[in-house]
Amino acid sequence: MKWLAPGLVLLALLAACGSGSGNADAGPVTCALGTMYGSVSCTFQFATCSDGHNYDVSCTGGGAPCTCQIDTKTVGTSTNNFCALMPDEIVAAVDSGCGWNIQLP
Fold first, then answer.
1. Is the pLDDT of residue 14 over 70?
2. Residue 8 is inside which H or E element, if any?
3. Is the pLDDT of residue 16 over 60?
4. d(CA 95, CA 92)
5. Which terminus of the chain has a lower count of CB atoms within 10 Å, N or C?
6. Any domain includes 3
C-alpha cells in the first residue's frame, strides 16, 4: 500500500468527489421531480431516484447559498439561486451547482 501526504489525499478526494459530493462521476440518475415550492426561498425535491436516494435543494434567498442534500444529509452548497428558474431549467442548474447528474424520466 502506498501512503500519500495528507494534502495529496485531500486533493485526491476533492478530485474524486467534487466539492458538492455529488453523483456527477457516477453516471446519470433518473429521478421524478417532486415538490417544488417558493419563489424567493424555495425547495426542489427529486424523489424515486434510480439509485435509491432522494435529492433536495433548499434556497433561502437573499444571496445565501443553497443547500444540496442527499437523503436529508447536507452534502454541499451552491451559490446559484434556483428559485427564479423555470421547471425545464432547474435540473441542469441544480446538476451544475450541486455536482449531481440527475435526469428526469
1. no
2. helix 6-17
3. no
4. 5
5. N
6. no
Domain count for the chain: 1
Query: Would 24 be classed as within a structural domain?
Result: yes
Q: How many CB atoms lie under 10 A from the CB of residue 17?
A: 16
Task: Give the confidence band of 105 by pLDDT, cuts at 50, 70, 90.
Answer: confident
Burial of 103 (0-12, 13-18, 19+ CB in 10 A): middle
Buried b (16+ CB within 10 A) or exposed e, 37-73: eeeeebbbbbeebeeeebbbbbbbeeeeebbbbbeee
74 Cβ contact list (under 8 Å, min separation 6): 67, 68
Residue 25, C-alpha cell as written in the block: 462521476
Q: Rounded CA gap, 101 and 3, in Å?
A: 32
Residue 99: inside a domain: yes
Compute CA distances 26 → 44, 58, 96, whole Å. 21, 23, 14
68 domain residue, yes or no? yes
